[in-house]
Design a protein that fits this description.
mainly beta, six-stranded mixed sheet, four-stranded antiparallel sheet
Length: about 375
């Protein structure tokens, strides 16, 4: 079973006071600052880059409201045959990047798949799936390389000389979904999916001087997030993870589902499922221990979230966890807030846009403003672009 690849290109939505950010050429990304009460989009797009051909953009918002956007420029143009990560730091209210530039994969890696951005208090982090790195023992591995910036994105340094902080296993179709900052000091976490009748997993390990750690071999261990008794195992359906600190710290993962039976089944055979963990990482509240086991931080093993929705993205912060998703029945984009008290998605859906979204991403600033990106497709020669 091959992992389904996400549909590419980007545009955006908002809920209230809107900031829009646009990547020109092959990709147009829109970033919107949102308040969860309304759905009025406004504001002029800001051009943050001109990639030859861009991968799905990632965004993180600092406590000051500065947006850090990164994407993979995946277009090879002789004599350059290596993909690069490009980034822009866009201060709140600015009309252009304060810092921007290129990051070249280390350790002889040549290709980039997934790019992620994290804001770790005074440190910014960019992570990327890379291929062809010399430091890995087998071409079957997908290293995760990491760059850090201690000065707000002015300068970036690769971590461990490009030796991966984590690795996927290509021949097992085991892929990292997304990295998060696990509640607790200096702890990085990765969520994973695996082909076949397998459950999603999660592992957490130190952000500083991390070991090379994968779903199949991690000194700190890892959690299996779906009970083996479920008749419909998730396998390697697309998913995302997010984390939040503050008054209600926790970690959430969301996944697309295509099940027709069992506890995750939906009438039209598709929807979303979620996992939820709470509290700071510790020996007695451990995100590396599977739900239902003693000392596990996970409160909800894989459970149904919504039916008749697609392309979910999850974000967390002062406003709490929520999912951005495509409401297939109504043909709209919606936001669904998670209820911490009941540990369920039992709140009303908020309609954000009168069309469906692709490749969604969510982030929050220090005041709880919600930033969202999503994707829209248009035909333009052989390139993918967005309006």
């Amino acid at each position: 079973m091959q992992r389904r690849r996400a549909r590419r290109t980007a545009a955006g939505i908002g809920l209230s006071a809107v900031r829009q950010i646009v990547l020109t050429a092959g990709l147009f990304a829109t970033l919107a600052l949102a308040c969860a009460a309304s759905a009025t989009a406004a504001g002029k797009p800001v051009n943050v880059g001109t990639p030859l051909e861009a991968g799905h953009p990632a965004v993180a918002v600092t406590s000051a409201g500065d947006a850090v956007i990164a994407w993979a420029n995946t277009k090879d143009l002789a004599p350059v045959t290596t993909n690069i990560v490009q980034y822009c730091v866009l201060p709140a209210g600015a009309t252009g990047c304060l810092h921007s530039g290129d990051l070249t994969p280390a350790d002889s890696a040549q290709a980039i798949d997934n790019v992620q951005v994290l804001s770790e208090d005074s440190t910014l982090v960019i992570l990327a799936d890379v291929f062809g790195a010399a430091g890995n023992n087998s071409l079957d591995y997908t290293p995760e390389q990491e760059w850090q910036s201690p000065d707000g994105g002015a300068t970036w340094t690769v971590v461990n000389g490009g030796i991966s902080v984590s690795s996927g296993i290509i021949d097992a179709d085991t892929q990292p979904l997304s990295a998060v900052t696990v509640p607790g000091t200096g702890v990085l976490g990765y969520g994973w999916d695996t082909a076949g009748a397998s459950a999603p997993t999660f592992n957490a390990f130190p952000l500083s001087s991390p070991p090379e750690c994968s779903v199949q071999a991690c000194p700190a261990g890892y959690a299996t997030l779906e009970p083996a008794t479920n008749p419909d195992q998730l396998g390697n359906e697309p998913g995302q993870f997010a984390a939040q600190a503050g008054a209600s710290p926790g970690v959430m993962g969301v996944f697309e589902t295509l099940f027709t039976n069992g506890p995750l089944g939906c009438t039209k055979s598709f929807g979303t499922a979620y996992v939820y963990g709470a509290g700071a990482q510790s020996a007695s509240n451990n995100y590396n221990i599977s739900p239902g086991s003693p000392n596990s931080a996970w409160r909800v093993a894989l459970a149904q979230a919504d039916c008749d929705v697609d392309a979910p993205a999850v974000g967390g912060g002062p406003s709490g966890f929520g999912i951005l998703e495509d409401n297939e029945g109504a043909g709209t984009t919606v936001y669904h807030r998670f209820d911490v008290a009941t540990e369920k998605f039992d709140t009303p859906l908020v309609t954000l846009a009168g069309h469906g979204e692709l490749d969604g991403a969510l982030s929050q600033d220090g005041t709880g403003g919600i930033y969202a990106t999503y994707s829209r497709r248009r035909r333009r020669w052989s390139d993918r672009a967005v309006v």
